[in-house]
UniProtKB/TrEMBL annotation:
Segments passing through the bilayer: 36-54, 66-88, 167-187, 207-228
Species this protein is from: Macrophomina phaseolina (strain MS6)
UniProt KW keywords: Membrane, Transmembrane, Transmembrane helix
Keyword Transcription regulation applies: no
Name of the protein in its database record: FAR-17a/AIG1-like protein
Cellular compartments per GO CC: endomembrane system; membrane
Compartment(s) of residence: Endomembrane system
Length: 254
């Protein structure tokens, strides 16, 4: 192939690569570069969290529902699945896995933000509301791996390696409400088998109080969805009425 042909071929490949990436997406993904690095680090963090659960058993480990009684662990499982799909899409350069990752991220990212907000807020008020008296205190590293890292990692994936969300307020409220109701039913099923709630706070509230708590959690998750969408626009810009990217650095337009 002549030099001119090679240049033309490279230009075509470069154009296809840019076309495959949303104009607002800051960095290439799926890719075996920075995207794969972030998703590898995330998978390592999530794996450590589950390793901790298996290697430091407690009364919850033997209870019906295992540690999945905790909203934290449910969110962690979804975050792990999201990042595993992201990493596999990076390694295989699979658009299908990448799209599936983005779909899961619509739920996992705001859910983890909600968990982080609720956990650290309630813990600042009274840690005994979150931790059964027979459970040992979490050291700082596992505490962060459970209750901070997932939100940070999923937010980083959204801001730098994902296309913008198109989810509006109504679907965000619907998804958040459905998750809150599903988790409430799950917690009550665990209580029916174990005779105690995973979070002492639940036991201190009556049915109405728990309904208000879960409704509040659903609202926080819905607001987190819209807040993440807004932060994405601040960081990466947004599409104008003509379908062109606006508020984005010139380097992203090239």
């Amino acid at each position: 192939m002549s030099t001119t042909g090679k240049i033309q071929n490279a230009a075509v490949q470069g154009g296809q690569k840019l076309a495959a990436r949303h104009p607002l997406q800051r960095l290439d993904s799926p890719s075996r570069g920075a995207s794969a690095l972030l998703h590898t680090l995330g998978c390592c963090s999530f794996t450590y969290s589950f390793w901790y659960l298996f290697h430091f058993p407690n009364l919850i480990s033997e209870a019906w529902g295992w540690h999945l009684q905790f909203l934290t662990t449910c969110g962690l499982a979804l975050a792990t699945l999201t990042y595993a799909l992201a990493l596999f899409s990076d390694l295989t350069l699979s658009p299908a896995l990448y799209r599936l990752k983005n779909l899961l991220s619509l739920t996992s990212a705001p859910l983890e933000c909600c968990i982080t907000i609720l956990y650290w807020t309630i813990k600042a008020i009274d840690p005994r509301l979150l931790q059964h008296p027979d459970l040992p205190d979490l050291a700082l590293l596992p505490d962060l791996s459970f209750h901070l890292n997932p939100a940070l990692l999923l937010t980083a994936d959204l801001l730098f390696f994902s296309p913008p969300w198109t989810l509006s307020a109504a679907p965000a409220i619907g998804v958040s409400g459905a998750i809150a109701v599903a988790y409430w039913f799950w917690v009550e099923a665990c209580f029916a088998h174990n005779g105690f709630y995973p979070y002492p706070l639940f036991g201190q509230l009556d049915t109405v109080g728990r309904a208000v708590l879960f409704a509040g959690a659903a609202a926080i998750m819905a607001v987190s969805t819209l807040a993440l969408k807004k932060v994405y626009e601040i960081v990466n810009g947004k599409m104008d009425s003509k379908g062109s990217a606006s508020g984005v650095e010139d380097v992203k337009k090239e």
